[in-house]
Amino acid sequence: MEKIGHYINGKRVAGTSGREADVYNPATGEVQAQVALASDAELNTAIEVAKQAQIEWGATNPQKRARVMMKFVDLLHRDMDKLAEALSREHGKTIPDAKGDVIRGLEVAEFCVGAPHLLKGEFSEGAGPGIDMHSVRQPLGVVAGITPFNFPAMIPMWKFCPALACGNAFILKPSERDPSVPIMLAELMNEAGLPDGLLNVVNGDKSAVDGILDHEDIMAVGFVGSTAIAEYVYSRGAANGKRVQCFGGAKNHMLIMPDADMDQAVDALVGAGYGAAGERCMAVSVAVPIGEDTADRLMEKLTPRVENLKIAPYTAGDDADFGPLVTKEAHERVKGYVDAGVKEGATLAVDGREFSMQGYENGYFIGGCLFDNVTKDMSIYKDEIFGPVLSVVRAKTYEEGLDLAMTHEYGNGVSLYTRDGDTARDFANRINIGMVGINVPIPVPLAYFTFGGWKRSGFGDLNQHGPDGFRFYTRTKTITSRWPSGIKEGAEFSIPTMN
Ligand code: NAD
Question: Rounded to whole angstroms, how far apart are CA atoms 316 and 328?
Fold first, then answer.
């Protein structure tokens, strides 16, 4: 059985805590590896080596740090197939989708090549009599990232690329469900020229997370995962005086106006609702057609598309739409929600619960499910299901549809399909959700913009990657200077002003 340990001080090390978790192949249901769960001592060792290594790295000029990112990007391209295969084997997503996972992270590394520019401070000559004032951005020290299973390449890179480019050392605590790729990424960073000790991968569970949140040498924590844990990490980290940003769950709505191109809207819904088996924080899980006629036209076109989704293990080739869910628990949870939806009175237009993959009967496969006539009080509407289940909520008017999205507790992403510019502009202006798509179903901002949800999808200040990533992983120092020729004789007792 393969054993996955940690990556500390530039090398793979075996776990020594005696605690491990099983890593499954979601397509077969077999345990294919065991991942070590770190003890406090292992975590503390990683933090100590990071602390030592950061001193020199923080003082290294940003251009040299950027060159490591440049080389890292090349190595990601070189190892793309290997990374995608390892990712799909533990996560279950298709190979093209796994490559997308790597590429979306790689794009953040590309953005971080601009570190010398992004870290430039500000300078005001003659801010007062004989006085100049400037500000600099300095690294925080040792910082940490805690990441979810659903993007085991992209989300770790969202975190460690800006943090390292800013001159910090990094502790990554990835998901214990698909731990191989994060360690491969750390190896590639070292191959790209990152000195040992700056990027450490500590595998673990709640105990490692608590250790990070309580350790006095961790200056900032970036978390991505479910809302309940995001809120916990935010409260505990902030109570310990750390800078913390936590991104949580989602229930992303897509409104379809009567004037929308229905074929485009249906293409968008099947891709965004069922891609990656719905295991994306930006998946569309609620479709809101405006008006009965729009709803009827939508269901007529959508139903056969959901019935004919192609589901397969990643090994079956590149033309599958999606693969299995990540674990048996996820499979049971998603099925449980579909059962609940039926009990609560929604119309199950497509039932994927009994789907079985020939030759992979023990895998965690489920077919696409489609509900019509879903209402606000149902659990399938209120909760994040994180599976291939789309709920159609019929709204009479645009205002009613807008109100649905605005009053939902989550505020990650939202989308509107229309040909009308006025409606689109009104929607983008009024909606209280962090990422908005106009005729775009999954509006994930590119690496040079920032990513983050509102309401119970995000806790703390500043978003991820883009300019906010550089702000989060640095602190600003402002320096005011005056030289003897500009200093008047005599002590000043009142606060200096510009009067
Ligand atoms: P999760 O919350 O179960 O796990 C996330 C991380 O927290 C993992 O590293 C895990 O080991 C750790 N963790 C789990 N239980 C913990 C506990 N009790 N105490 C401390 N740490 C704990 O999330 P997941 O199932 O891996 O990922 C799916 C979730 O992530 C979904 O809710 C999805 O919407 C969300 N997500 C959000 C974003 C975003 O940017 N908003 C992006 C991707 C995924």
Answer: 21
